[in-house]
Design brief:
- The complex is a heterodimer of chains A (416) and B (107).
- Chain A is α/β, with parallel strands linked by helices.
- Chain A is built from 10 helices and 25 strands.
- The longest helix of chain B is centred in the first third of the chain and has 7 residues.
- Chain B is built from 2 helices and 5 strands.
- Classes of the chains: A alpha/beta (416), B alpha+beta (107).
- At the A-B interface, helix 1, helix 3, helix 7 and helix 8 of A face helix 2 of B.
């Protein structure tokens, strides 16, 4: 009997494999991953792990015995060469695998800068464990660090490098940090924290060329004519979905593998989940999200679909990052925000910024306020948030107090 | 390697070996304990590694931090006096034969 084949052993693929067993799926499960490392977790790679001395095994998502105990066949170093949808066969270097259901959990890959010198020694990406190992090896002897891109990966790495006492310069094409993934309040707050930690920023800075004699990076040439010296550079300029090759087997790809709201491709027996999937969101718009929360949510729902158990509602998208000693947690959809409202006070170093569309809450980010974050996720999931005009007059008291006082006011009104 | 017993909401138990110095959440994940999700990888940001700790071991645990406290207030199954996030429990030799119960829901 052919069972479920999962291509990709990242957070989504592994969650799906174990999620199937959790839902009493009895058929064979095989996870194919091209990496030689057993499935690992990525968040610590840019944070604690990069500055520590723990080995790659410290990042394992599950112990080797756990796969065996759950009767999940894990094939490492196993690259997919082709898929025959008529025969329902996945061809790999290790041989042919028959499937009844195929799940593509291919992840994404860092965008490459197409500039001269991008291939010099000392130029790094931080996406796979192989890359993290290489980067950590060179970080030990680095004297000046450059970071291209002020997104999550770039800033998390900048923070880790600054913690080692290294001079760090972050170069960003936009006018602020996290231009597409955080409000201006949060960008400004985070910039100040990074600067306090010793990191320098160069905004509105386009990288023109990477320069280095004897094959190693020495400086980054910016379009305004200035230069940033660095002997180690991390590029964090976004990611693109893997799996463009699915068009070869007649599936659709458009900035991600195109799937419906159930994560199914146009082939009913093939799903795509996580970073690589461009799915129909709650408003029917094609959307791609890059986060562990999204991969876990997709895995959970596809596991339930395959196992024939009740499928939960899509989770409210959520994300977190830790940089410069700050915990930043986001929930909802920043791309839908038209208006912002700060709750609490920035001076207290613990606040939330809420995003609104037509007066309704669609997004919120919380700085050092885990309780706020959980509250925002709940308000978004239940559609129970007050409107912008209700919240605005009491926003200064902080999110939780404001929501509570509004709820109490409502009860008092009803009693009167 | 202290032994720790996880008892799920249906009463089924699983005993695992935990390395001293590793969090209980991590040990559970490595050993494939069902019902510990740990979606934030142990940053005390998600409350999906909630456990109820057996009375006699409560005194062996570190104090509850503000972050953990916030998260415990928002667990999917009700918080009890012995609720903890398993990512905040770092296994020590005195945790030999520790028993924890899993909540019915983590999310």
């Amino acid at each position: 009997m052919s069972g479920v084949i999962i291509v990709g052993g990242g957070h989504g693929g592994v969650d799906l494999a174990f999620g199937l067993r959790e839902r009493s799926y009895q058929g064979p499960i095989t996870v194919l991953d091209k990496s030689d490392f057993a499935p690992y977790e990525r968040p610590p790679m840019s944070k604690s792990w990069i500055n520590g001395d723990a080995g790659p095994q410290e990042l394992s998502l599950r112990g080797p015995d756990a796969f065996m105990a759950a009767n999940i066949d894990l094939q490492l170093g196993c690259e997919v060469l082709g898929i025959d949808r008529d025969e329902k066969i996945v061809e790999t270097r290790q041989g042919r695998f028959a499937y009844s259901t195929l799940v593509l959990a291919l992840g994404s890959s860092p965008r490459q800068l197409r500039i001269s010198g991008a291939g010099l020694a000392g130029m790094h990406h931080l996406h796979t464990l192989e890359q993290a190992v290489a980067l950590r090896g060179e970080l030990a002897s680095a004297t000046r660090v450059g970071v291209i891109g002020a997104g999550f990966i770039g800033l998390e790495f900048a923070s880790s490098a600054a913690k080692r006492g290294l001079p760090v310069t972050v170069m960003e094409t936009a006018a602020r940090a996290m231009p597409r993934t955080a409000s201006e309040f949060t960008s400004a707050y985070m910039r100040a924290r990074h600067e306090e930690a010793g990191t320098e920023f160069r905004f509105n800075a386009t990288v023109q060329e990477v320069v280095g004699a004897s094959g190693r990076v020495q400086q980054i040439q910016l379009s305004d004519g200035s230069c940033v010296a660095a002997d180690l550079v991390v590029q964090g300029v976004g990611a693109i979905a893997n799996g463009a090759w699915v068009t070869d087997i007649g599936l659709d790809f458009d900035n991600g593998i195109v799937v419906d709201k159930h994560l199914r491709t146009r082939d009913a027996d093939i799903f795509a989940i996580g970073d690589c999937a461009r799915f129909q969101d709650d408003e029917g718009t094609g959307t791609r999200l890059e986060s562990i929360g999204n991969a876990a949510d997709h895995a959970r729902r596809v596991a339930a679909t395959i196992a024939g158990t009740p499928v939960s509602k899509p989770d409210v998208p959520w994300f977190w990052t830790q940089q410069a000693g700050v915990r930043l947690q986001m929930a909802g959809r920043i791309d839908r925000v038209e208006e912002w409202l700060l709750t609490g006070s920035i001076a207290s170093n613990a606040f939330s910024v809420l995003g609104w569309r037509q007066g309704q809450l669609v997004y919120g980010e919380s700085i050092n306020s885990a309780g706020d974050h959980v509250a925002i996720r709940k308000l978004l999931a239940d559609h129970s948030a007050p409107t912008l005009s209700q919240l605005r007059p009491v926003a200064e008291t902080g999110l939780k107090a404001a929501v509570k006082s509004l709820a109490q006011g409502l009860v008092a009104e009803q009693l009167a | 390697m202290p032994n720790v017993t996880f008892i799920d909401a249906a009463g089924k138990s699983k005993v695992i070996d935990c390395a001293v110095g590793t969090s209980l959440m991590r040990s559970a994940q490595l050993n494939g304990v069902t019902g510990i999700y740990a979606e934030c990888s142990g940053q005390k940001m998600c409350a999906t590694c909630h456990v109820y700790v057996a009375e006699e071991f409560l005194h062996t645990l570190p104090a509850i931090s503000e972050d953990e406290n916030d998260m415990l207030d928002s667990t999917a199954s009700d918080r009890q006096h012995n609720s903890r996030l398993s990512c905040a429990i770092i296994i020590q030799p005195e945790h030999e034969n520790l028993v924890v119960q899993l909540p019915e829901f983590q999310r």
